Predict the 3D structure of the following.
Amino acid sequence: MTPIQSLVASGTKVWLDSVDPDLIATNRALGATGATSNPIIISDLLNTGRFDTAIATFAEARYDDEAIAWAMTDQLVKLAQDVFEPVWCETKGNDGWVSFELDPLLEDPARSLSATDKAKQYIELGKKWSAGHTNRMIKVPATDGGLLALEELVASGIAVNVTLIFSERQYTAARDACFRGAMRRADKQNVKTVYSIFVSRLDVYTEKAAPDLSPAAQGMVGIVNAKKIWKLNQQFWAGKGFALQQEMIFASTGTKKKEDPAWKYVEAFAGSDIETNPPATNKSVEASGRTLTRHIDELPSKDVLNEIQSKVDMGKLEETLMREGISKFADPHKALIKLIASKRAK
């Protein structure tokens, strides 16, 4: 049994943080059962030149640069969906999903859209890009506008992946909105929602914002935060009567410090729900030869937990990481459009 296979055997679903057709095939063979996309992933893929023929075809059809960006995203996500659709069928919709991220430019601070306007557009785009697809999940950020859109999206029969979650406050708001939407549906057996809690970014933040954390606590904030929210999610949905699991996604599972083992976050969450691991992380974990077993229920000592609670201001953490996250959300999409413009010029 390979390390990734042992991770799957522990009870974790592995969704690749890429829609590269080659990597999808490789990781599917290892046991991956889903995937996710974002503008950085699409931009990196198009930058390789492997899809220039498709870009040229859209350009000849008089698509503008932004339309080409979305057409290529749609195409690449659909290719991944085709690979994972058998999983979706076998699990009756509990697995086999591929996430499609909605327009990041809705969150561009330069546009100054109100939360209501953002929500309206998220709902319209969610319905547009999910129409006609079985195993496509719509990815919406846990921003003010994104949170306002969730109830209607779920009520409309759309599977959602709520992303950019850093705090319990964001998770609770997202979960409650999705639950309200689910309760409006007649087909409760088909409700599927997932909540992407970011991990490693929290530890990058605390190294600067909370440098006085002890060695035992520094580098554990992301893990502790995500595990606490995972437990809340388990408790909330238990006994609610939904046929499908409403799950946490452990995102940002690639290590940021050279001295950290590649499997640090991957192993910490082994045993439940979903991990969206970057391709490089999966490759390093595979190379380790390590057997991964269930660790999702384990927390550090009470002393470490108390120290994190007393020294880390989660409100400030959320505010800072959301500001950075929104920038990382919008800027890559602008770069993607510029990339397509340069390819068109060539």
Observations:
- The longest strand covers residues 136-141.
- Strands lie at 13-16, 34-36, 98-101, 136-141, 160-165, 193-198, 247-251, 274-277.
- The chain is about 55% helix and 10% strand.
- The radius of gyration is 20 Å.
